[in-house]
UniProtKB/TrEMBL annotation:
Keyword tRNA processing: yes
Keyword annotations from UniProtKB, A to Z: Isomerase, tRNA processing
Catalytic activity: uridine(65) in tRNA = pseudouridine(65) in tRNA
Organism: Marinobacter maroccanus
Gene3D superfamilies assigned to the protein according to its UniProt record, in alphabetical order: Pseudouridine synthase (3.30.2350.10)
Pseudouridine synthase RsuA/RluA-like domain segment(s): 13-172
Listed GO MF terms: RNA binding; tRNA pseudouridine(65) synthase activity
Function noted in UniProt: Responsible for synthesis of pseudouridine from uracil-65 in transfer RNAs.
Protein name, per record: tRNA pseudouridine synthase C
EC numbers, comma separated: 5.4.99.26
């Protein structure tokens, strides 16, 4: 069996991998019948030994996923994430042209994973995200009521860690992420799924920076999006994502 995870960094304390879109991190009550998980593939990369996921990455989101190789490291890094000491960067493709940069300060109601709790009112938590527009394009295709359709590539940096935060925040400012079945625009999602022969969420975790939980030294991990993401970005003439990552 081919392991879908690729190793980005490994030492005695950490195993950092790239997760492809479509792979669950671990078992979830939402997908009870799923049999493949990033957690089991990470164990295989760890000589069969247990690993500890220290943060979430939604099933349709690709990119950087961090595992600790022992419980103490998991606890230390988990506390750093809760304290806002871990910087995360994402790349996304959205509908429309957002401003050059901005902050989204919009509290979000918690979304329980257990469907039995959907009728129970959940608490509202503070949520803040920053964005920066990297590229824009306009294609001569009528998808909604206009003869052309506009899209942008944005860099997203969540300052808090709420469930589906970036997807919900981009919907809030009317620039939903392409391929988002729950918070996006169906007509645009269908157009790109048909045009490229595959429908995927255009959101990728591309950067993470924090102090190493054992040494305290700064550690920065960066990786371009996977090929299925880059293929859709071909609608942005002149935008080279590799150049963006080399800056």
């Amino acid at each position: 069996m081919v392991n879908p995870l690729s190793v980005l960094y490994r030492d005695d304390y950490l195993l950092i991998v790239h997760k492809p879109a479509g792979l669950l991190v671990h078992r979830s009550p939402i997908d009870k019948h799923e049999t493949e998980f990033a957690l089991q593939y990470a164990r295989a990369l760890n000589d069969g030994q247990h690993v500890y996921p220290v943060h979430r990455l939604d099933r349709p989101t690709s990119g950087i996923l961090v595992f600790a190789r022992d419980s103490d490291t998991a606890r230390t890094l988990g506390m750093a994430m809760m304290a806002g000491e871990v910087a995360k960067t994402y790349l996304a493709m959205v509908r429309g042209w957002p401003p050059e940069h901005g902050e989204i300060d919009y509290p979000l109601r918690e979304e329980p994973e257990d469907r039995r709790l959907k009728g129970v009112e959940q608490p509202v938590r503070d949520a803040v995200s920053h964005y920066r527009t990297l590229a824009t394009t306009e294609i001569p295709v009528e998808i909604e009521k206009y003869p052309t359709s506009r899209y942008a590539v944005v860099e997203l940096c969540p300052k808090t860690g709420r469930k589906h935060q970036l997807r919900r925040h981009m919907k809030h400012i009317n620039h939903p992420i392409i391929g988002d079945a729950n918070h996006g625009r169906g007509r645009h999602n269908r157009y790109f799924a048909e045009r490229f022969g595959q429908g995927r969420l255009m959101l990728a975790a591309t950067g993470m920076a924090f102090r190493h939980p054992a040494s305290g030294e700064p550690l920065t991990i960066s990786v371009p999006p996977e090929e299925s993401f880059l293929e859709v970005l071909s609608i942005f003439p002149g935008f080279d994502v590799q150049v963006h990552f080399e800056k």
